[in-house]
Amino acid sequence: MSSEHLLSSYDYYLPQELIAQNPVIPRDNSRLLVINSPENHIHSVFRDLPQWLLPGDLLVFNNTRVIPARLYGAKSTGAPVEILLLEEKEPFCWLALVKPGKRFKIGSEIYFRLDDDEDNFLVATVVDRDEETGGRLLKFQVDSLDLFWQKIEEIGQIPFPPYVTESDAKPSQYQTIYAQKPGAVAAPTAGLHFTEELLENLQQKGINQAYITLHVGLGTFRPVDIDNIKEHKMHQEWIEVPEIIVEKIKETKANGGRVIAVGTTVVRALEGTAKATEMAGKQELMEFRGKTDIFIYPGYSWCVIDGLITNFHLPKSSLLMLVSALIGRERLLELYQIAIEEKYRFYSFGDGMLILLESKN
């Protein structure tokens, strides 16, 4: 088996103190490691991003919004229950992780207190079990989508990643400033560095902006736990790449510009759309709305993107494999060691990387 396909080849040691517990304020004051050629790297600051891009380049952002996915309720007996919503399967019906989960049989009810009124509850019923995740399908007893989201906002909490254990961050700091469409259970963290001022500066330089949607779910933070990574199965995530964005991508490439993904979720959305296009027997990229389970690792042939803005990722993660497919595993791990020596901050609230490839045009 090639070392590129061995899980152990994607391991590295990270000192605990480099796991960022709080975001930088202002957001664009974070550091930026710029890789603008296979051999070269430069230490920069995120607010200087416009100087590394060219007029006519297209930045593609993920406008998903993190939902208050962590809920605390109780069984009919009064026993406490913790819920993590993962994915909407149909209106008012969600796949969720339940703790403690072993005793939750089909038909069990969970009660979430809405206010100080003892009789005012949001009720969810267990309607099925999910073997893949060990989770449950919960059907919430509500009459409308607006009412559902109103109640979830009232009782839920934004779930920070498990490695963020000592944070003073506010829930709003775990949302991008352009978050619009609720549905994610984790933030597309490369976008957390952007401020209104930075977006305006990019626009003034002639760097275009486009927005797609990928609702970040289990597939993003689920660990790879199989020695041969080619056998890893990605969880599906919902994406929407509308026709207007496809046209922007085509126009950018036709004019010699670069398509730069803001985050690995955008990479998965755009390359997942290319995969769906190919499966439909089409030659030109087409719009797509549906689910993708695309898994990108070294050896992947890129279809859409010419560059990537991303954070530093966990060892042995599918995200580390995706970035390795862009610049090479050995080069990426070398850059990670440089970042560690330079005391860069890692993971969701950490610093960023900008990786630029030569345009294919």
TrEMBL record:
Keywords: Cytoplasm, Isomerase, Queuosine biosynthesis, S-adenosyl-L-methionine, Transferase. SUPFAM superfamilies: QueA-like (SSF111337). It comes from the Bacteria. One of its GO terms (biological process) is tRNA queuosine(34) biosynthetic process. Its EC number is 2.4.99.17. It catalyses: 7-aminomethyl-7-carbaguanosine(34) in tRNA + S-adenosyl-L-methionine = epoxyqueuosine(34) in tRNA + adenine + L-methionine + 2 H(+). Transmembrane segments: none annotated. One of its GO terms (cellular component) is cytoplasm. The keyword Cell wall biogenesis/degradation does not apply. Belongs to the QueA family. NCBIfam families: PRK00147.1 (NF001140), queA (TIGR00113). HAMAP family: QueA. This is S-adenosylmethionine:tRNA ribosyltransferase-isomerase. It comes from Crocosphaera watsonii WH 0003. The gene is queA.
